[in-house]
Every structure is written in C-alpha cells, then in structure tokens.
C-alpha cells in the first residue's frame, strides 16, 4: 500500500532531500527473539553480584518470590537495578533499538504524530509524552521533524514530557536533547527536571505517567511495555500454579524456578476462565498503564502509539535476558542483564475497557512501508556521498524491514478516540459528514 497522500506530503516537506544522516555501527544487532523457553544455556557458575546477594538474603527471609517481583528488583532496584545502574542501550550496551539503527525510524514516527494532529483539526497545543525514552534518540529524531515542519506547527504550543526512572538515562537524554542545559525542578514536585530542546521546545522529566499534566497528548511507548514485570503461570493437573523464583538447594548461590504449591492471588486474579494455553505471562502493570492512557485519551484527546516485541494472545514462554547483544540466562547475575518479555497486545486491548478504539497490532515492516520508508530510503540513497554510506543505509533498512530480523518481530499498536474512526452520528445521518481521514501507517481502519 502506498503512503497516504497527506503522509507523502508531510514526508517530502519534513525530510527534504537528505537532512542529517546518522548511521548505525555495522555490527549492530537487534535483540534476538526467544526460542523455546526463551532461555540459553547458563554460561558457567552464577556471578555473586550485589543484586544476587540482596536477593538471596530476601529469599532466605521470605521464601520464593514471583517472577514480577524478581524482575522489579533486577531492573529497577534503586541501588543495583539494571536500568538504574546501567541501562545498556546501543552498540556498547546489551541491546540495540530501532531508533539507534536508523534515523528514518524516528522521522516516520514524528510524521505519524503530525499526521494525527492534522487529522484531528490541528489543536492549538499538544504534549508529546514518551514512556521510557532510552537514550533520547527517538525523541531527538521526532524533534527534528517538528523543526522541519515549524511553519506548519507555528501556531501550536508543543512540549515534550519524558517518563524516565533511570537517573543515568535521564542524564544521557538531557545531553542529547538539550546539550545538557537542564535544571532540577524542586518547585514543581511532579517534574524532577526541565530544559529547552536545541530547537526551543520545553522538555520535562517525570518518574511516573500520573505526574504528567493532563491535556491533549500524543503518547509514545517504544520498547517500554516489554520491560515491565510479568507474572508467569503454568497449567497443572491440580489447576493453575504461579511460577516463582527461589534458591537452588543444590547450589546455594544460584536461583531456580519453582511452582507455587497452591493457587496464588495472582493466579485467581489474572488467569481468564477461557484461557486455552498451557503457560501464560501476564503483565498487570502494563494493564494499569494502558488504562491510564485510555482514560486520558478519552478525556483530553490525542493518541498513543505502542511499538514493541509482542503477540496477540498466542505466545506462551517469552521471558528472556540480554547481555552484550546475546541471550542471557534470566536467573544468572541479576542486575547485569536486560530482562524482557513479549507484549500481549490482546491483553492491552482488553484493558482499554472500550474507552478508546484500537488499531493493530501490525508488523513493523507493514507499518513502516505504509508510512513511506521506501520513498525515504530512495532519497537518502540518491544523495549518499559514497558506496559505504549506501551500504550502511541498505543494512539499516534490512534490519528494520526484514521479517527474519525486526520486520516481523516488532509490532505497532495504537489507541485513538472513538470519534477518530467513527462519526458519533454516522448511524443516524450517514450522509451528513465528510469521510474521516485514514490513520497513517495502519491498513486496518476498523474498530476492534
């Protein structure tokens, strides 16, 4: 499907003949998808990390913990958590994301938001709210698009709001987006830091989405939901049992998975009666956040775009770890590796509780093609100064679009107000309204 005419026009005016060109390192690799069980073989004996010592003390005192509690400790513990201490994104880290692979990814996301802003009548102000913004690369690329479309956005009050729990990553984001010109914000208890982007747009940092002010907002969650803590459940002859993390009695400084001896509160609350799978992962925190987004969009307008590894309620065991761009045993050396699980988009859709319409999930390959990535690639290739640059552009394109790499593993999912897709009085006066502009990037233009 060719990009929508409005999207094509935005593409031409926002990106110009070439623009700034950022190339990924040649060896950059995306996170591999999970195999059966999502686990590689353990690499030797478990390292006695500070986080492991902390967990061993906790387990000896309280007994086994849920996988969700284990993930929460390993990733966001204030002293030794992976994200609070490291946050290894990029070539020198533990995994690489689409914005790090190619600037075109972020440029097309920026065009998606401008397209939606136009389709909803060009409101006089909007907030771009990114959840878990990584190094700030995606926001930086989006801001460049906004700058290129400055004449179009000249009468719109645009602001950026970043929800980030990692002090380390917020420093990196501030450096990239403002050149480090930020200040702590003690007089405003909601935003802990604020600054001005290099293009003059105000930026605010928050620790929780509830701290972001209300108002017409576009939300962005790229590789955010996959890092939220999950509960794991296994069907047994005695009914559903929760998977827990405990000390291995045969190797006292190592961890192992065990099943709960009886039903847990999470088992009773999160397993649906109609569930047919033998193994299920549920992320209640994702459900809470998607509900908050749906409530905000229903009340204030806007849209949310979620891009992540995921499935539509079909997969089972996807919990896995990454370290140095390779699969890593999730129970080994906690706090030193990224932990992730595929997003269940059917669960997100259910948790909107009908407050918003949803589109997708659709494959990244399809979304980016609909957004005009092929046109953008041709322009960049025509303006590339040398063969090496052209080869890198083609390599980046293949990383994003190849079904065996990120093209099919990654999905896009959107939340939109109901009236964005269906006129409120369409049933009664089908001829009374002009056709609604389609949603860029999505083939699927029906309510789910």
From TrEMBL:
GO biological process assignments: methylation; mitochondrial respiratory chain complex I assembly
One GO cellular component term noted in the UniProt record for this chain: mitochondrion
Annotated compartments: Mitochondrion
The reaction(s) this protein catalyses: L-arginyl-[protein] + 2 S-adenosyl-L-methionine = N(omega),N(omega)'-dimethyl-L-arginyl-[protein] + 2 S-adenosyl-L-homocysteine + 2 H(+)
EC number: 2.1.1.320
Residue spans of biased composition, Low complexity class: 22-34
GO MF annotation: an example: protein-arginine omega-N symmetric methyltransferase activity
Family listed: Belongs to the NDUFAF7 family.
Name the record gives this protein: Protein arginine methyltransferase NDUFAF7
Species: Steatornis caripensis
């Amino acid at each position: 499907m060719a990009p929508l005419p409005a999207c094509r026009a935005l593409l031409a005016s926002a990106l110009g003949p070439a623009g700034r060109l950022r190339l990924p390192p040649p060896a950059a690799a995306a996170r591999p998808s999970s195999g059966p069980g999502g686990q590689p073989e353990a690499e030797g004996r478990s390292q006695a990390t500070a986080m492991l010592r902390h967990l061993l003390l906790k387990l000896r005192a309280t007994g086994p913990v849920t996988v969700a509690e284990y993930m929460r400790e390993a990733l966001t513990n204030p002293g030794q958590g992976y994200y609070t201490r490291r946050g290894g994104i990029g070539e020198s880290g533990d995994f690489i994301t689409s914005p790090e692979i190619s600037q075109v990814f972020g440029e097309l996301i920026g065009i998606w938001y401008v397209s939606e802003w136009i389709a909803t009548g060009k409101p006089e102000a909007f907030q771009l709210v990114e959840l878990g913004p990584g190094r700030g690369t995606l926001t930086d690329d989006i801001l460049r698009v906004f700058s290129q479309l400055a004449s179009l956005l000249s009468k719109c009050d645009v602001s950026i709001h970043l929800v980030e729990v990692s002090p380390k990553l917020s420093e990196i984001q501030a450096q990239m987006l403002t050149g480090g010109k930020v200040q702590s914000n003690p007089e405003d208890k909601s935003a802990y830091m604020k600054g001005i982007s290099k293009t003059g747009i105000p930026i605010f940092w928050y620790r929780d989405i509830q701290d972001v002010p209300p108002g017409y907002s576009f939300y962005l969650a790229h590789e955010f939901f996959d890092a939220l803590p999950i509960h794991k459940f296994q069907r047994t002859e005695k009914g559903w049992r929760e998977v827990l993390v405990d000390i291995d009695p045969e190797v006292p400084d190592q961890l192992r998975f065990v099943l709960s001896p009886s039903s847990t509160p999470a088992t009773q609350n999160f397993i649906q009666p109609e569930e047919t799978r033998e193994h299920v992962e549920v992320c209640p925190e994702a459900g809470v956040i998607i509900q908050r987004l749906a409530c905000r969009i229903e009340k204030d307008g806007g849209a949310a775009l979620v891009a992540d590894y995921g499935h539509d309620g079909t997969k089972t065991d996807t919990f896995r770890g990454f370290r140095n761009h390779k699969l890593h045993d999730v129970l080994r050396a906690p706090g030193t590796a990224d932990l992730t699980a595929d997003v269940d988009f059917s669960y997100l859709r259910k948790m909107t509780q009908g407050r918003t319409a949803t589109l997708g999930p659709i494959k990244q390959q399809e979304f980016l093609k609909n957004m005009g990535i092929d046109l953008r690639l041709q322009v960049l290739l025509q303006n590339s100064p040398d063969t090496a640059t052209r080869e890198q552009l083609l390599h980046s394109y293949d990383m994003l679009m190849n079904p065996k790499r990120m093209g099919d593993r990654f999905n896009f999912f959107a939340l939109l107000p109901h009236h964005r897709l269906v006129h409120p009085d369409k049933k009664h006066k089908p001829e009374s309204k002009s056709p609604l502009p389609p949603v860029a990037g999505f083939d699927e233009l029906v309510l789910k």
